[in-house]
Amino acid sequence: MPPRNHSQWLKKPKVEHISSDIYSSFEIYRQEQDMIFSKVWIPMCHISEMRDIGNFRTTKIAGVNVIAVNDYERVRAFRDHPIEQVAGTLSCPYEGEELYCEVKHGGMVWVTLNPNPDMNVEQWTAGAFDCIADAIDAEEMEVFHYHKAVIDTNYKLWHDTNSEFYHDFMHYFNRVSGFNDEYFARKNIPFDNGHVNVSSFTVNYEEYDGFEDRGELSFPNLPPNQWYMVDLFPGFNFNLRGSAYRSDAVTPLGPNKVLIEFRGYGLRKDTPQERQTRIKHHNSIWGPFGRNLHEDLIGVAGQGTTMREGTESRNILHGRHENSTIHDEVGMRHYYAEWGKFLERDPASTYREAA
Ligand SMILES: [Fe+2]
User: Fold this and answer.
1) Quick check: 317 pLDDT over 90?
2) Residues 134 and 221: beta-carbon distance below 8 Å
3) What is the pLDDT of residues 218-261, one digit of tens each?
4) Is the pLDDT of residue 210 over 70?
5) Region 128-137: what's the mean pLDDT?
6) Ligand 1 centroid to residue 353 C-alpha, Å
7) Residue 6: which H helix or E strand, with range?
8) Which pLDDT score is estimated for 170?
9) Rounded mean pLDDT of the chain?
10) Is the distance from CB of 21 to CB of 28 less than 8 angstroms?
């Protein structure tokens, strides 16, 4: 096949695709804040981070300051607070414009800016957590790890990384020791409202150099060494790898800038020795010197560089159909179909076409 010239490169492909413009347009970023992040349920923190009465945590959702407070019997959330700290303890009850707030799915604190949500959290998540519900709801969980990263990339590229698995070949250590036939047979399963989960397989940790079996500390009701992932629209990921649980939450800061908060969880009842082992398991995969997370961050920073504002529109193909197995792009197609509904816009149309 002869090399393609510029106009041939720009031609619409004959398979499912989206435009790279949706990762780089400031106008689309603003629409996403108004039409997605202001409307949906956001898992803003975990109940274990605010266990005592008066404990609070703050965040920003779609540019609005949001505070969640442990207010006696329940957690309440309010908008437009003036508090500068991320966390702390209030000495008297908070007064303000209250938001809908629920504690659900392993103790996550969910908040929505939507003054009239037409779904509760259970309805919104639409069964995407069912596969891990018995594991994360049987015992109280506790956050043992928190870090955040501000990355020059679009938040959707982070969610893509948690949804497509063909970048797994980028992960050096996974590539050399982690894959087996069961890994490639994992299925992507779509749920209503744009969510997807990735079915489990048994990880042979003993084949990882320097690793040990994790069966003994597997979460409750979970067969040993399983690995489930829940990708929640529009940018939240829940990752259960046998003995440790991780959540990622995005806060878009611009078309090419995202804050990602990472939390690691164990069980509240852990002995000090068990907790130490869980932390070690968590960090060996997802810590700064682990075998996975930092490589993902480098990957999306590279994508952010090539798709930043002012770069030329390109077509991002989502055409792989492989019986919903691990490299099938069904999850990506499902996500962007939902995104298109929220924004009332075809994700395949370039910014110029839509204007
Ligand atoms: Fe990855």
Assistant:
1) yes
2) yes
3) 999 988 878 899 999 999 999 998 899 999 999 999 999 999 99
4) no
5) 96
6) 33
7) helix 6-10
8) 81
9) 92
10) yes
Q: What is the arrangement of strands in the sheet containing 244-254, beginning at the earlier edge strand?
A: 141-151, 257-267, 244-254, 236-241, 227-232, 195-198, 188-191
- Give me ligand 1 centre to Cα 196, in Å: 16
State how far the Cα of 224 lies from the Cα of 220, in Å rounded to an integer. 10
Which residue has tokens 């399983």?
A: 226
Class (C level, CATH) for 42-118: mainly beta
Angle, helix 155-163 to helix 293-306, in steps of 10 degrees: 130
What would the mean pLDDT of 150-166 be, rounded to a whole number? Answer: 94
Please provide the DSSP assignment of 205-223 as one string. GGGSTT----GGGPPTT--
How confident is the model at residue 174, as a pLDDT?
Answer: 66
DSSP per residue over 282-304, as a string?
HHHHHSTTSSSHHHHHHHHHHHH
Please enumerate in sequence order all residues whose Cβ is within 8 A of that of 177, keeping only pairs 6 or more positions apart, or say none: 207, 208, 209
* Cα-to-centroid distance, 124 and ligand 1 (Å): 26
Going from the Cα of 190 to the center of ligand 1, the distance in angstroms, rounded, reads 20
Which CATH superfamily hosts domain 6-34+143-354?
Naphthalene 1,2-dioxygenase Alpha Subunit; Chain A, domain 1 (3.90.380.10)
Contact, 279 vs 264, CB < 8 A? yes
Q: How far is the CA of 177 from the centre of ligand 1 (A)?
A: 15
Q: Is the whole model's pTM more than 0.90, yes or no?
A: yes
Q: What's the gap in Å between 308 CA and the centre of ligand 1?
A: 21
Q: What is the predicted pLDDT for the residue at 261?
A: 97
Q: How far apart (Å, rounded) are the C-alpha atoms in residues 59 and 65?
A: 6
CB 313 within 8 A of CB 171: no
At 119, list the tokens: 């779904």
Using DSSP bridges, classify how beta strands 97-104 and 64-71 pair: parallel, antiparallel or unpaired.
unpaired
- The closest of 135, 118, 154 to 259, measured between CA atoms, is 154
Domain locations along the chain = 6-34+143-354, 42-118
Q: How far apart are CA 266 and CA 56, in angstroms?
A: 21
